[in-house]
Amino acid sequence: MKNIDTIAFDADDTLWVNQTYFDETEYRFRELLEEHLPYEKISEELLKIEVDNMSIYGFGVKAFTLSMVEAALKISNYTIEPKVIQQIVDLGKEILLKPIELLDGVNEVLKMLSGRYRLVVVTKGDLLDQERKLRASGLEHFFHHIEIMSDKQRNDYCKLFKNLDCKPENFLMIGNSLKSDIVPVLELEGHAAYVPFHSTWAHEKLEDKVIHPNLLRIEKITEILPYLIQ
């Protein structure tokens, strides 16, 4: 990694906890609808609706909440009570109001790399919510640039490289999603470090094994330091 000059960090579940809150909310959502459908079937229906809605709503809590409402209507055959719809909306609001919980080692890594590299955040989701989380995290001052994408695909990273005036061979992406953070960057011959989180949204899971000379797999974010600081 001697040629790296720009390091990008995914935000959710790389810098701070995120998917855990969605998992907890989905569990409570299933409880609200358990009289209509078995638990596992509720999750299947919700995921299908989320995926179908991505091109319209994008990613994030608001999209998730709207998809929960739609799923509740369909699962109940449009018999669900208005008060339950309100409970579902409130579940979404609760996620938006969660405090920011930084993952272990994040502060240490950013302090060590700051000044040595150009640091950026590359995340996707709802613009307002991601900006709120970044401000609340206390990490904003570490970053040269913040990029909140509508999606993280190959073309999105091409645009990012152009905006940053950065060549792929000088770029390192650190993230927890092979599908969104790792594979698109490797396809462009950039560098990537995969740091798994204990929970992954079903849509972000990648069944194929990823093998690439520019891919580094680490168990926690602090393990990146020996590769970047000699």
Largest sheet: 6 strands, parallel
The general outline is elongated
| Assembly level | single chain
Helix content: 40-55%
Q: Strands across the major sheet, in which order?
A: 3-2-1-4-5-6
Mean pLDDT: 92
Counting DSSP E segments of at least 2 residues, the number of strands comes to 6
Order of helices and strands: EHHHHHEHEHEHEEH
Characterize this entry briefly.
By secondary structure, the protein is α/β, with parallel strands linked by helices. Helix content is 47%, strand content 12%.
Keywords, separated by commas or semicolons:
230 residues; alpha/beta; elongated; six-stranded parallel beta sheet; 6 strands
Q: Overview of this structure, please?
A:
This protein has 230 residues and is an alpha/beta fold. It has helices at 19-33, 39-57, 61-75, 82-96, 106-113, 127-137, 154-164, 178-187, 225-228, and strands spanning 6-9, 118-124, 145-149, 171-175, 191-194, 215-217. The protein has a 6-stranded parallel beta sheet, covered by helices on one side.
Please outline the helices and strands.
Blueprint: E1 6-9, H1 19-33, H2 39-57, H3 61-75, H4 82-96, H5 106-113, E2 118-124, H6 127-137, E3 145-149, H7 154-164, E4 171-175, H8 178-187, E5 191-194, E6 215-217, H9 225-228
Parallel strand pairs: 1-2, 1-4, 2-3, 4-5, 5-6
